[in-house]
Amino acid sequence: AVFEIAVGPEDRVWLGTDSQGLWRSDDDGEHFAFVGYDDKRVVTVAEFPGDLVMFCYDDEAVYVSDDGGQSFVRSGEAIEDASPGQPASGVHYYELRQDGAGAIWLASWEGLVKSEDRGRSWHHVETYLPEAVRDVALTYDAAGNPAAMASAFGGGGYLSDPTARSAVPLGFDLAEPYFKRVATSHDYGKDGMAAY
Questions:
Q1: 48 closest CA partner among 12, 73, 24
Q2: What is the mean pLDDT of residues 7-21?
Q3: pTM of this prediction?
Q4: Quick check: 132 and 152 in contact, CB under 8 A?
Q5: How much is the CA Rg of the chain, to the nearest whole Å?
């Protein structure tokens, strides 16, 4: 099964798979070649400008390539190993996203981490959520700042704004909502599109 599809420049496409590792196409998805990491659940993969490619296993982050995916090294500074508590799916790392300033954000079950040096080092970003995260998606607020839309284990959804140091409950006019999954557009602050 395919966990993640990421499109890069020059007709490059990446596939992160369930227990079949990482795959790459250089012809817009016509043919795929196995990159490696057999028997691993590659749950998120992304390519960014400047030949920067990153991916995560379900319980291990982050693998970084500065050469367009020809070789990868693990860069785990400040990213703890998967916490003792386990999400029901076993997946700890959800999404990699780059903001307008070039910083890379990683949304995880344990919270948000951010790199401002192409994945060499990472630091935690306070989410201001009232409890543990069940699922999270990265987006941007109306001002263009990175934000996290998350569902919490105790129920409810939140829009976390690290720059404003707050998390706003999102009830969508539902009584005691309990969301298992969350998805949002890249610009929730502008278009208001989200699904729980």
A1: 12
A2: 91
A3: 0.78
A4: yes
A5: 16
